[in-house]
Each structure stands twice: as C-alpha cells, then as structure tokens.
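General statements about sequence and structure are easier to judge against a single worked case. No coordinates are needed to read the tokens, only the vocabulary itself. The sequence in question and its structure tokens are set out directly beneath this paragraph.
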Amino acid sequence: TIDVWEHAYYIDHRNARPKFVETFLNNLADWDFAAANFAA
C-alpha cells in the first residue's frame, strides 16, 4: 500500500504528491514480490 496523506511525503516532496507516487511506484515497490503474491 502507499500512504498519500501529507505526513508521508511532505518533507521530501513538498506539495508534489504525483512525484511521490511516481517515486514509490518506480523505486520502492517490489513488483516481483507483488506478482508472486498475486499469482499465489
């Protein structure tokens, strides 16, 4: 899951919520793990 409340991203990304989501999806999410769980 991704936390998009301001307390989660404001220090690093200020008001740029889309940039925070992009960073999460491209760099922090473990897509291999997610795919393995989805396939199970």
Q: What stands out?
A: The chain has a mean pLDDT of 87.
